[in-house]
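hey so u asked for the seq, here:
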Amino acid sequence: MVSLGFYRFVSIIPYISTIVAVQVHPVARTVVSPATCMSGYSWMNDSQGYSPCLTVAYVEAACVGNNYDQPVLQTNNSYSLPNSSTANPCYCSWSSYNLMMACTLCQGSTTIYEWPQWASGCTTNTSWTQEYFPSGYMLTGDASIPYWATTNPSNWTYATFNIQDANATYQQNSSSITPGATPSSSGSGSSPSPSGSSSSSTSTDVGAIVGGTIGGAAALLLLVITAYLLYRRHVYKKGVYASAINQQGTAFMSFPSTHNRIPSDASFSPSMSGPPGLHGQSISPSQQYGTAYSPQPQTAYPSLQGSFSPPPQTDISVYTTHTSNGQRSDVIPMV
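ran it, structure tokens below
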């Protein structure tokens, strides 16, 4: 019978596989923006049709765990500048500034910032303001950055984003860029070369999901193999124990019995190997044992002959005496 512990182990395998799958698979990512642009600004969209508000959400999310919500801009409000708490390589990049300002204007607001004012909040690392997108980071999903948004903001008129300059850049090149993990040579102020509608770089999510799935399947397979080996080990131990019990029982039942046969048993039992003349005949004691028993008196022990003589014989004759008054006295043996 399979042990109760083995059944318990097998019963928890589904739960273990579920836990492993949860740990291996990447956490669900949420990149959203409820903000919408007014009509006439569709040229600002990326190759997937994402508005600048949703695209900038993907840019910011790359540095914060791929979870970001670009809110709707309320009337007479503006989006926050980078500061010591919010500054990071994504927030301080060129594309972040350009897309954030485009999202502001396409919603009907006119409150925008100059690039030097935006970059002043990125003093933690000034190199963050030297790229259109930080090296070593990737956009999640299928998002891409419009080519016009990769422009160095210092090249805009008065170093401030404006629709006229951005639209002119769009007219020259309407493609979108999907940044990969390979650094782009954009520190000198030049924008990356266009790559058509989107790059063929592998998405982070796809690789993570594939890797997580393979890892979960491998972990589940390992658990199944472990359970099988434990089961085989249990069965083997059970078989060895049963075999030992059976061998002990067989040895006890087949233990050879001894029977001391006296000479008469062998003498009176017919044997095909004995002398033919004895079959069916009576056998005298002398014939049975081969020699006749003839007791002979010994006067001394063989080993003590010559040094030991037999004791004197005792005369046990009974004598009767009479006293003087004629009465019979007791018998006195004579030695």
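DSSP finds nine helices and six strands in the chain. Residues 204-253 form the longest helix (50 residues).
lmk if thats what u needed
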